Amino acid sequence: MMRFFALVLMLGCALVQGVGASEGETGGASSLTKVSDLYPNDMGPAEIDVSSYPNELKQNYKVFKFKCAACHTIARPINSQFLELSQDEQKKEKAANPELFKDKKLAHVEDKIWNRYVKRMMTKPGCPVKGEDGKKIWEFLAYDSKVRKTGANAKSWIAHRKKLLADFKKSNHEAYEKLFGDEEDHKEGKHE
Questions:
Q1: H/E/C letters for each residue in 24-93?
Q2: Inter-CA distances, 112 with 26, 53, 87, 142, 188, Å
Q3: Which residues contact residue 31 at a Cβ distance below 8 angstroms, ignoring those fewer than 6 apart?
Q4: pLDDT tens digits for 29-88?
Q5: Per-residue pLDDT reduced to its tens digit, 125-137
Q6: Which of 9, 29, 104, 131 could be joined to 20 by an S-S link, Cβ 3.0–4.6 Å?
């Protein structure tokens, strides 16, 4: 019964996405077949090893996987450049791993970024994430982004993102250009 519910939920979200649920991510409404529906993140892994995470966050991971998969690939947030760090954490990480702060395509570091993004997703028509589930998803994403993208893992994270972006640019050049524009614009800080 649970699988049937998940399938119905996924189909409902897919229909909603086709009429505008992904609006705002690329500047306008998109359908499931438009170039604007493609993201480098979607080309990465769709699973995380959370065996070493605290039990509560392991449970939050299950909520995240179930709820978020209803509207987009789980790979999208898993491979996202978003990294939620407080101002104090940013100072420490900038000293230890300054490369994380050089290109927002590799790591978009900001306090409360996952909090804001989860709230944004919750406002989309047909989103199955409500109330307490939103908080659980945010807590998981914020924790996970610190574990996998900072400290000793920062260099491997940067290498992972660089590969995702290069592969995406090669295989989906039109979508890459739509998302990121001209490379020189990035170097001048005109795009995020």
A1: CCCCCCCCCCCHHHCCHHHHCCCCCCCCCCCHHHHHHHHHHHHHHCCCCCCHHHHCCCEEECCHHHHHHH
A2: 21, 20, 10, 8, 25
A3: 17, 18, 19, 37
A4: 333 444 458 899 999 999 999 999 999 999 999 999 999 999 899 999 999 999 999 999
A5: 999 999 999 999 9
A6: 29
